[in-house]
Design goal:
It is a single chain. By secondary structure, the protein is an alpha/beta fold. About 40% of the residues lie in helices and about 15% in strands. It is built from 15 helices and 15 strands. The protein has helices at about 30-40, 55-70, 85-110, 130-140, 155-160, 175-185, 215-225, 235, 255-265, 280-290, 300-305, 325-330, 350, 355-375, 380-390; strands spanning about 45-50, 55, 115-125, 145-150, 170, 190-200, 200-205, 215, 245-250, 275-280, 295-300, 310-315, 315, 320-325, 340-345. It has a five-stranded mixed sheet, sandwiched between helices. Strands 10-9-11-7-12 form a five-stranded mixed sheet. Strands 8-13-14 form a three-stranded mixed sheet. Strand 1 and strand 2 (about 55) form a beta hairpin. The N and C termini lie far apart (about 65 Å).
Length: about 400
């Protein structure tokens, strides 16, 4: 018989002495006693192979060997004793029970076996701070579960997610139709779960005393493609502003922040001038504007909240007067033009892994507290209840069908 990988051959010794493999002298009683003793002696050991596969090869090989060994005895050996079929059935039952027990242990209590599990996460720089806080708290109660958290931006993380490379993807915008199609081609079903509200926040240097508020039209005038090489001074945006250089900093083209900002301000996804200082790192944008009196940028509210001593938020006038971003103005709808949901997307197959299921359940249950710790705005209790049911019922696909949340 061919040897199974990682197992021994049919000469493998079991927890029953090797002498018990010999032909019993008493055909019936000895055979029955031997079989009963052998079956009781099997011990199923659950272990993890290459971090992904359940291995029971040693005992599985032993069961195959004993079945073949007994079946090759002369026919008269079984006279008055159990048939080969009975022996095989007993072996099969023992194997089934062992596999079931190990499957339960492997799924529910892998931590007790010292098996390290990994949840692969990537996502938007806006959502990542929330996910890091959740992961840190989760690992304190489940230290056998490790999380690897990337920060590829919304576009980059969706590319990985739709190739099946990650279990969870954070996004500062909804998944787009092209991304839904890419996931479908790769056979990746997903669950779409909103986890927080976020007011995209426009900030300037604290020494900027003139731009306390900006209208949507003025922001468009600054950032639209037609402004490239033309709108280069603050005075061109509003006559009362100083004739100082307009220094623009912003996220790169793979950022969900850029996509949401351009859709809401310019009127089209990724329609933006190219002559600004771009970075995928929001902390870089914080540093540059904090050091530049004439600088302006935008990002998720959390980055502003962590740096209020270095930055100044700009009130946005959407037609009813200037409104500063805050939890109150986001919740009451007055800061509406640049408000958006933040999402996590879960690979549906990954969600069936116990550690991923438990992590997402913990994420949603803890979100009202941990989202606020990351300086974002929690959803209402009612909405979180809906999101939890959506996950528990495994409602796959995008609620918006892969269409932008905002129709320009």
């Amino acid at each position: 018989m061919a040897q199974l990988p990682g197992s021994s051959s049919c000469s493998h010794s079991s927890s029953i002495r090797s002498s018990n493999w010999r032909r019993p002298k008493n055909r019936h009683n000895s055979m029955t006693a031997w079989l009963s003793k052998w079956l009781r002696g099997i011990r199923f050991n659950c272990s993890n192979r290459d971090g992904t596969q359940l291995r029971l090869l040693s005992e599985y090989t032993k069961a195959i060997c004993v079945t073949l060994h007994v079946e090759n005895y002369p026919a008269h050996f079984y006279s008055g004793g159990p048939s080969v079929g009975v022996i095989k059935m007993a072996v099969a039952r023992k194997l089934a029970a062992g596999f079931l027990a190990c499957a339960i242990i492997f799924g529910a209590s892998r931590a007790s076996l010292g098996v390290e599990q990994a949840i692969r996460i990537d996502g938007s720089g806006t959502v990542t701070p929330i996910t890091r806080i959740v992961a840190t708290q989760f690992q304190r109660k489940q230290n056998a579960v490790k999380t690897s958290i990337g920060n590829s931006g919304t576009d980059g993380s969706f590319e990985r997610f739709c190739r099946g490379e990650t279990d969870l993807s954070g996004a500062s915008r909804l998944i787009l139709k092209a991304e839904v199609e890419a996931c479908a081609r790769a056979g990746v079903d997903f669950l779409e779960l909103p986890i927080a509200l976020d007011p995209i926040t426009v900030v300037v240097n604290p020494a900027n005393t003139w731009a306390t508020s900006l209208t949507v039209a003025e922001l468009k005038q600054m950032w639209e493609p037609a402004a490239q090489g033309k709108v280069t001074r603050w005075k061109q945006v509003r006559a009362s502003f100083p004739n100082s250089p307009l220094k623009l900093y912003g996220p790169d083209l793979r950022s969900g922040n850029l996509e949401e900002f351009t859709a809401r301000i310019v009127g089209k996804y990724k329609a933006i001038r190219k002559d600004y200082t771009a970075s995928e790192d929001d902390n870089f944008l914080v540093r540059r504007v904090a050091a530049d009196r004439n600088g302006l940028t935008y990002f998720g509210y959390g980055y502003y909240a962590q740096n209020k001593d270095r930055l100044k938020a700009v009130a946005i006038d959407s037609g009813n007067g200037p409104v500063l971003p805050s939890e109150q103005t986001l919740s009451n709808g007055t800061y509406r033009t640049l408000s958006r949901y933040l999402f996590i997307y879960i690979n549906a197959k990954s969600a069936d892994r116990p550690e991923v299921n438990e992590f997402v359940e913990y994420y949603l249950q803890s979100a009202p507290t941990l989202v606020r710790q990351a300086n974002y705005v929690p959803l209402t209790e009612e909405v979180y209840g809906y999101v939890q049911r959506r996950f528990q019922q495994r409602q796959t696909g995008s609620y918006y069908g892969g269409q932008p949340e905002v129709t320009p």
